[in-house]
Fold this protein.
Amino acid sequence: MKKRLGLFIFVFLLTLKSVFATTWDEPWANQVIKQASSFVLAKVNSTDEEKGISIQIIKTLGGNELKGSITITNFYLLTICSTSGGHGAEFQTLALDSCYFFIKQNNKGEYCIATPTTGFDYVYDSSVAATFRHSYHQASVPVPIYEKVMTAIFNNYHGLSYDQPYMLHFAQEYLTKKPAGFGPDELNTFFLQHVALESICHLKLSIQEQLILPFLKDKTNFHNQISAARALGTINSEISKKELTSVVADTTIKPFVRVMCVWGLADLHPVELKAQFQKIKETASDEADGFGGNIMDPRVCTHIPSIKKALQELVEKL
């Protein structure tokens, strides 16, 4: 369990090269899923830095059906920040067996994933290293749950029906439990609560705010707070606005969480709170935040604004 904990708690689960001259701005999961045209499970036949990833389709779970063997040769959401020596982004040469892919076929007929580091969730020991938020923040999810939930999210973003009763029951089942942490007896629950909260964000599920608030108030768990902020940002109620604003004003909470609350509030368009946001902005920090991690990580330029800038952007929208 300790080995699994070290490998799979919200870290990037792929072995990257030790030095990257090329960096990019990594997209969030909603962008990856929305812009993919197919969601498939495939066996990985081979990987090559320049030629791409050769796969054998096992099944199509959503979108345009793919069959047989295909080669992924390009990217559909790659925003380069820096290059060196003329080298562009390269595919990762990973020792994988089976993997879920979000694939888009571009106007040249090329099969693409989002970037070299996202647009795929790989299978290990009957679980999936799953991205429901961002590739910096992954979760270990049992295959049956992953397929059911991710298919629902994919279908929703593509205007297709999904099993709403299942998703509501799943979210309620795990959010009625006490917010879990990283302990060995809590880890599985922690991951599934992450999936439940992120599902509310993606699907805009009709869930009572009271089920989400314990996670927003869990100052011991940065990730619970982030997911709760994202979930509350889809529920347009006085409770959501009040609780999100309270976190934005709380300087004892990590800036990343507070920015997620600002983004959630922006989606709720609380014009009546504009003056309050302006007041908070006056003393807010202008220091930019980020995902952290290794400075040699190619996703290093993925940007999170300062709380002051996030508030300024919100005020300008209201």
Q: What stands out?
A: Residues 187-203 form the longest helix (17 residues). Confidence is low (pLDDT under 50) at residues 1-20. The radius of gyration is 20 Å.
